[in-house]
Amino acid sequence: xxxxEGSSLAQKPPPLPTYHxxxxxxxxxxxxxxxxxxxxxxxxxxxxxxxxxTAADEYAKVTQENKVTTATKERDIKYKSExxxxxxxxxxxxxxxxxNTQAELDAILDYAKSLREQCVxxxxxxxxxxxRREAELAGLKEALEIxxxxxxxxxxxxxxxxxxxxQQ
Length: 168
What we know:
Distance between the termini: 202 Å
Structural class: mainly alpha
Number of helices: 3
Number of strands: 0
Largest sheet: none
């Protein structure tokens, strides 16, 4: 032992130098590390391949859905275009029918108006009634004179009447 036995500063002796020995575990350490790297790379490759397959399946699925959607929309466009054309044609025909029907209605309304004017009795003005009655009275007076003349002739006799007829 070095130093004093009772002293508080006891020192330990320096370690003995080690000499070079043959490395036996280094080659298995590198191969082991390469094997671990190969295993990790294999796992990563398998995961990447699985992700790639999943992405490819998803892409194929989405592509098919897009094709179906596109075909459906193109068919809808075709049918709706045909329907729009049919509706435009129908609209044109209905517009023409409407114009014809409206013309007929106008003619019927005009005719009904003229019939109403003929059927509805309008009150006459006093002057019109008075003039009409005066004309009627004058006609009646003339008829009375004619009847009086004929009655007088009948009283004169048939001979005189015949003579009178012959003279005319």
